[in-house]
Structures are given as C-alpha cells and as structure tokens.
Amino acid sequence: MARTNPREPCRKGAYVLMLGVVSAVLSGCGIQRSLLYYPGQVTISEVQKYVNANDLQMWPDMSAAYRGIVSRKGPADFRGTVVVFHGNAGAAVFRQYYIAALEARGYRVVLAEYPGYGGRSGEMSERNFIADAQITALRAREEFGGPLYVWGESMGCGVASALANDPGARPQGVVMLTPWDSLLNEAKAKLPWFPVRLLVRESYDNVANLADYKGPVAVIMAGRDEVIPNRLTHRLYESLPHPKRMWIFENAGHNDWPSHPELGWWDEVMAFLRSTE
User: Fold this and answer.
1) End-to-end Cα spacing for the chain
2) Is the pTM of this model over 0.90?
3) What is the C-alpha to C-alpha distance for residues 156 and 126, in angstroms, rounded to an integer?
4) Fewer CB near the terminus (10 Å): N or C of the chain?
C-alpha cells in the first residue's frame, strides 16, 4: 500500500470536516455522519500489509476485531501506557510518529482505531466511538499496565476527554492536541450567521468533558491553525481546572505541527503529566 506522506489523510480530513459542517448545515439536515467523518478506503488486508512492513502489529489480533495498532516490541523501559485517539481523517496505522516519539521515552503506545475506520466495522458516531474507546482503554490498561494516559488529536480530543472521568479508565493525564472547545462552537465559527445550534447533533464537548477532571491536562495549540480557530483552543484551556499547561507551536498549522521524535516538547508534555503521580 503506497503512501508517501502518512499525515496526508489528516490534512484532507481537516478540510473535509470543515466542508462537512458547512455543507450539512446548508442542507438543513444537521451534520450528517457521512460528511463529518472521513475514514478513507482502508481495508483490513491493507492494514495487515502495512503493519507487517513497518514493525507494527494489529492489537489485540490481526483481524477485523482489532482495536488499534501497537509496535511489536514496545518500550525498553516501561513508564506507562498512552492510548492515542487520532483526528478525523484516515486510519490509526498511519500515526506511527506517536509510537516513535513516546516509546523511546518509555511508554507503551496504542494507536486506537475507531469503528468504521481502518477496515473495522461499526457505526461512526460520537456515542459509539466513546463506548468503543472505553473498552479499548480498559483492555490496554489490563494488558500493558498503568499508569494510563489518553491523548487526543483534533476530533479525537472529544473521545479522549470523554474518558477523563471514566471510572474504569482513570487516566493519569490527558493530552489535547489542536482541540476545539466544542463541535458546536467550531460550526458557529465557520457559519456565525447561521442557527447551527438547531442542526448540530454530535457534541464532542471538551469543556464539559473535562470540567470535573482532577488530573493534569496538556493542551497543544497550532498558532496558525487554519481549521480550528485559536480562540476555541484558548477557550478550552481557560475553562480547565488546574493542573494544566499549554504548548503553542507559533508557526504550525493544523496538520504540520512538529512531530519529530527527538524534539524536546515530547519530554516536557510527559513530564508534566507525571507531575502529580
């Protein structure tokens, strides 16, 4: 399966998400799931070929029942488990930059896959994604051990934040990378003149999800985010109780934030999340 840029689906999906909001609202039928979600056309056999060629594996097994992608070896020195919920577009298998960065720092990484994405079956909806994520997080904790951290990217922030107060997951810390405060406000930012409140059906409300969370929350903002206005990320951050910290990549857009595994910000974020252990 040829792919020259593993982050290209993220870029496409960000714009598809914007287009979905606008198109569905203008159609008068709410944000339809076929427009909101952009899973691409990735089959199970393609995922299997890709993981075999890139020292990865489907977890917990190499079938359509898999829940995510992990490395074959895991970290040399275990410090915890990070479950990553990716953005709107493409498949989890193409987010191996998280594995490269975090496993070098001692964390077992699970690139969680959503129902309807990456060849998995299932309904694409906020409710179903969160229910599925709860199962994935619990299984990851049981198999790989804790402490458990949840990491969301863009739309995936809404899934990660929903696990913050889940009594089973009990995450030690939460990372919100390029988040909005809520999908409703994202829609309103694109169409400020339109009554989107009457039409938006999914919420992905990070403010509400994190309102009572007592653990550390790291927020990462792209200073030139062309998809999610910075004011929405700031609004989320200002709503959070302490402990919290923000990182801003001033010259980065929504999908070109610096992901090289040797960059120091990865260390800073994980050290902050461990600060309350």
Assistant:
1) 42
2) no
3) 10
4) C
